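idk why but the lab printer keeps eating my pages so im just putting this in chat instead. protein + phenylalanine:
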Amino acid sequence: MAGLLEKIEEMAGQAPAKVKRSDTLDSLEEIRLEYLGRKGLLTSILHGLKDAPADQRPLIGKQANLLKNKLSGLIDQRRRELEQQRSRRELDSGRIDVTLPGSRPWTGSIHPLNQVLERINEIFFGMGFALAEGPEIEDEFHNFDALNTPEDHPARAEQDTMYLEGGMLLRSHTSPVQIRHMQANRPPVRVIAPGRVFRRDTPDATHSPVFHQVEGLYVDENVTFGDLRYTLEQFAAQMFGAGASLRFRPSFFPFTEPSAEVDISCIFCRGKGCRVCKQVGWIELLGCGMVDPNVFDSVGYDSERYTGFAFGMGIDRICMTFNGVNDIRLFLESDVAFLSQF
Ligand code: PHE
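predcted complex ->
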């Protein structure tokens, strides 16, 4: 068995280099098994020692054990190196660059109609008005009868108002909130009532079957048309700037007498005429008037003692005009690209 010593020598020449060259923990383990595993080259030499000539046994045993210890030492050392390399790589790949700017969470924005509405609310709250609310599903009494609107009035026609089953309808204006508020409160009353209203309109760029109004109502003793005018002028100055002037045109509503439609001088051309105001210099703002005595009668207010004014303002058109929005339908479409501009 003279070959065993040579074999050990050969292994001693090759194995350490192999260990050093191994570049993964897996390949290192393969090398360990090749030499030191249960059926490894060095292990079988040690196991076969009993068959070696007795005079050579001590030397072969000694050399084999030396190599075994040396190899396991080298393998352990290499394993530690490779493990260190691996954890360094893992740390590197997970490293946080603290100088990078953070990612900002997306916060959304307030709907343009609500921005206009909040501004209108603020101004009227500042003048002592309180908030009133009413249902979107109404009955004919609150939407029409109590508002002095006769059975044959065109607004009551099926082609204008959306009727539901059981004599109910989708309110065609916010004026029924006037009735509900007066039924529940004694004068003086001073409220605004914003909300959605519904009409049978074919949708196009300037018409929508759903739009928004702000109703106003002021009832007390000695309330005059002058109070109405002053209130609206104060509102216009705060909403559109001191340069904005109002124009009152005689008009008709069943629930006010006298009635007026109010225009505001175009804030883009200061009344000279431009594309926004279609060259007229004025933009329609709202309808208003002195509360008709018949309306007071229908809610049990003494129409000899009390007077009042009311107004109703469509906010979609206002919002379009002042933001340069050319299609009313955009307000209802929840298009983030559109909404995120506000
Ligand atoms: N309700 C009326 C409309 O929708 C507006 C209005 C309200 C007019 C209050 C006068 C008084 O056109």
